[in-house]
Amino acid sequence: MTRILLAALLACVAGTAFAQQSPVGLWRTIDDETQKEKSLVRLVDGGGVITGRIEKIADPAKQDSKCDKCEGARKDQPVLGMTIVEGVRKHASEPYWDSGTILDPNNGKVYRVRMTPQDGGKSLQVRGFIGPFYRNQTWIRVE
Question: pTM (2 decimals)?
C-alpha cells in the first residue's frame, strides 16, 4: 500500500513539473520596447495545438481598443478577447513550441512564433519571426 501511495505521489509531482514546462497557462505579457506589462494572455492546448487569447489589457485607457491595423476577419475587432496565438505545436526534438503564428494587435503584423519555457516554466521566451527579422518578449507565468 505504501508503494502504491508513493508511486501515485511521484506521478503527481512529475505531472506538475511537466505542466510547468509547457506554455499552457495564463501569462503576463511584457512589451519588448517599453518593458511594461501589456496584457494577460491565456494559452490553451486543444489536441496538441496551442492557441492563445487576450484576457486582460493592462492599460485602462485601451480597454475598448480595436485592431485597426489588422487584416481580414480581425480588422476593427476588439483586442480584448482576440485570439492572437494560433497553431503552435511542441517541436518533436527540441524544448520549444513552434509552427504557429502570433499577432501583434498594435501593428497588425502576424509573425511565425517560437515559445520556449524558461526558469522551470516561470517565464516564457516568445520569439516572433518575419523572414530573417525577429522580436523577443519574455512573458511571466501568472497561473
Answer: 0.84
